[in-house]
Amino acid sequence: MPIVVVVGGQWGDEGKGRIVDLLARKARVVARYSAGNNAGHTIVNERGEFKLHVVPAGIFYPEKTCVIGNGVAVDPEVLLGEIEGLESKGIDTSKLVLSDRAQVIMPWHKELDRLDELARGDKAIGTTGKGVGPCFVDKVARRGIRVADLLRTEDLRPRIEAALSFHNRVITRVYGGEPIDMDDCCARYAELGEKLAPFAGDVQDIVLSAHRRGDYVLLEGAQGSLLDLDHGTYPYVTSSVPSSSSSGAGLGVGIGPTEISRVVGVFKSYSTRVGNGPFPTELFDDTATMLRDHGKEYGRGEYGTTTGRPRRIGWLDAVAARYSVRFNGLSALALTRLDVLDALPSIKICTGYELDGQIVETMPARESVLDRVHPIYEELPGWQQPTTEVRNFDDLPPQAQAFIRRVEELLECPVDLISVGPAREQAVIVNPIF
Ligand code: GDP
Ligand code: IMO
Ligand code: MG
Fold first, then answer.
1. Which ligand 1 atom sits nearest the alpha carbon of residue 14?
2. DSSP characters for 299-328?
3. Which atom, in ligand 1's list, is nearest to the CA of 426?
4. Which of the listed residues 130, 274, 303, 312 should we mutate to test ligand 2's pocket, taking the one with most ligand atoms within 8 A of CB?
5. Contact call for residues 262 and 2 (beta carbons, < 8 A)
6. What phi, psi does 377 have (nearest 5°)?
């Protein structure tokens, strides 16, 4: 049975949590495969409205197994707080499994994230400040602490000593910061390890066994592909691999690329970005304010789920999006927030960039070039009527249908699912994904 990956196609916050919550209906296992609590996934369903940072969005179905893969960087306090918050609202988390191979976000990672951003000054990345980047740096430097280490006090202390003595030198000598206390840290993380122990397990076995039994498995991505360490707008990217391109999704739960049957890319009907970095179609006018504040009165405007920062807004960038479709190997698109465009008299899509008198239709690698390109827009008529109650493609206004068809052409990928509101049922399923 299929293993389906849900991946963000733009700069994050495309509505992945909302799409996973919908698709999880048919899955047996839902797994987060990358990143950490820099992610913030909003889910609106019959249980209420939830913002998840680490726990997979399948958690609202009590019979599903939800797993946090080895590719995720886990802040134990954040995860335990999230579990507690869900339990307090009557959501059963007893089937949650955390990979014992997952990296742990330690106090020095958060401090280094903060200090490094300060040191970069006006070239700051605009990180979420959750310590995720420095945690992945330690993973690659082979200095990371894994969940398995937290579970055995005798293993934990020497590992913390090795990592923290190094990082305390960096914190004090490079950044002029305050050292972190070794004993406090060892005691606190041993205690957190005890609390996490009931959740720890072998994620690969769960995913593969479900797959071989014939059950559906959903792999939930975080962030967006244009924040990908390899393919994103480097250096204004995250420190992991959100995309599904070979190393991302399979790597993050311990399965090979041949096991994955479909990759669904979630795209907003326009673009947003939080943090710094190139954004060719960014808008600074009334349209940006209108799109950002749509649903603001219900806490649903374009403000970061994790940090509350206002999201930068722009038109749909088909050059960047097509690049993302290609390097993710997408089989289908899920187009979200179509309803946010409902009131607009016309809608623009960027079909190319103008650079020094030339037309560019592929994504430039250099940040300095991306900062200089001018978007070339195609303008489509708006539909100026509500779509939030529509459930069939044919019932969408003709202009909305034309917009979607044009998106498919420009992105070279079919739109299988359209989201017309934040709630689970506010969707138009064009082709069933499972
Ligand atoms: P994620 O990080 O990709 O899961 O996305 P976020 O949760 O950070 O941001 C997406 C926002 O859009 C959330 O507030 C969702 O509730 C909301 N949302 C998702 N799909 C739709 C939609 O089709 N229409 C509207 N109006 N809101 C949506
Ligand atoms: P979800 O899963 C939007 C951005 C940050 C910053 C850059 C690096 O909710 O879509 P980091 O803290 O990862 O080192 O920050 O990446 N970023 C996100 N932007 N949505 C996210 O996750 C993001 N996760 C990281 O804003 O620009
Ligand atoms: Mg988000």
1. 3
2. T-SSB-TTT-PBPEEE-EEHHHHHHHHHHH
3. 23
4. 274
5. yes
6. -110, 145
* Residue 295 CB–ligand 1 contact under 6 Å: yes
Cα–Cα distance measured from residue 292 to residue 339, given in angstroms and rounded to the nearest whole number: 13
Atom of ligand 2 nearest to the CA of 307: 26
Rounded CA separation 416/419 (Å): 10
Closest-CA residue to 217 (of 429, 404, 28, 409) = 28
What is the pTM (predicted TM-score) of this model?
A: 0.96
Asked if the peptide bond before residue 386 counts as cis, ω within 30 degrees of 0, the response is no
Structure token pair of residue 323: 């690049």
Please, which residues have CB within 8 angstroms of residue 179's CB and are 6 or more apart in sequence? Answer: 168, 171, 172
Of the residues 7, 11, 18, which should be mutated to test ligand 1's pocket, given the most ligand atoms within 8 Å of the CB? 18
Q: By alpha-carbon position, which residue is closest to atom 13 of ligand 2?
A: 238
Cα of 152 vs centre of ligand 1, distance in Å, is: 39
Quick check: CB of 314 below 6 Å from ligand 1? no
CA distances from 275 to 37, 80, 142, 294 (A): 15, 27, 28, 20
Q: What does the pLDDT look like over 254-292, one tens digit per residue?
A: 888 888 889 999 999 999 999 999 999 999 999 999 999
Would you name the residues annotated as active-site residues?
A: 13, 41
Query: Which residues does residue 428 pair with via DSSP β-bridges, in sequence order?
Result: 418
pLDDT tens for residues 99-152?
Answer: 999 999 999 999 999 999 999 999 999 999 999 999 999 999 999 999 999 999
pLDDT of residue 258: 82
The count of C-alpha atoms lying within 13 angstroms of the C-alpha of 122, restricted to the half-sphere facing its C-beta, is: 0
- pLDDT band at residue 251 using 50, 70 and 90 as cut-offs: confident
pLDDT of residue 118: 97
